[in-house]
UniProtKB/TrEMBL annotation:
This is Metalloendopeptidase. It comes from Mola mola (Ocean sunfish). Its cofactor is Zn(2+). The lineage of its organism: Eukaryota, Metazoa, Chordata, Craniata, Vertebrata. PANTHER family: DISCOIDIN, CUB, EGF, LAMININ , AND ZINC METALLOPROTEASE DOMAIN CONTAINING (PTHR10127), HATCHING ENZYME 1.2-RELATED (PTHR10127:SF839). The active site is at E150.
Amino acid sequence: MDLRSSVSLLLLLGVCSGLHGQVRTHPLNVVGSINFLIEGDILIPKKRTAMKCLKNAYSCLWSKSANGWVDIPYRLSSKYDNSEKRVIVNAMKDFEYKTCIRFIQRSTQRMYLSIEPRLGCSSTLGRTGDKQVVSLQRFGCVRRGIVQHELLHAMGFYHEHTRSDRDRYVKINWNNIKKYFVYNFDKKDTNNLGTPYDYSSVMHYGRTAFGKLGAETIIPIPDSSVPIGQRHGLSDIDIRRINRLYKC
């Protein structure tokens, strides 16, 4: 499978077909923002359409250098204290140890991640071509697995429970989902890079995500006891997908 065909449909890419027009109301939406939210924590730039990246697949991936590294420049807000900065930087280092992704401090690069303590945890999906904000609220979001979850969005990865074959692995309890958050469970037409469904992915929702009064919204099948929604760090399959998508 070549990179272009991998990028065109993916659980992975925020440029997948079906995004156009999916503007949803969400508490984190800001009036006048150039972005809109899907799936709870994914920001899609309004200026991007699904077709834009389908026509130019490489535009949504971070570029690989001649030395084989995929360098992702970032700027870390001075509003974080030293311990919070350590958590974020150490979460980034996990990628470098296990993949060809390397987060480097921004100097003059036009395309970079601006990691800021805004409201909630959120990220744009894939490379947008300019400054893009990764929001990591100081209280609740600065944890290794959550940091990695949002960085994976910025690299182009969707949530695991939205992949095309999910109905073989999880049951969605639609009646238990809060009315205005049903869209977070929309299934995507995806290319899964030849990897199995991953209950242990750091990109998987927990079983009570957006549930009414804490009701279960996602049930693993056939074994309902399988743990989902971990935020400890990258799973082995998360790592495999990064390496396949970016040809590490």
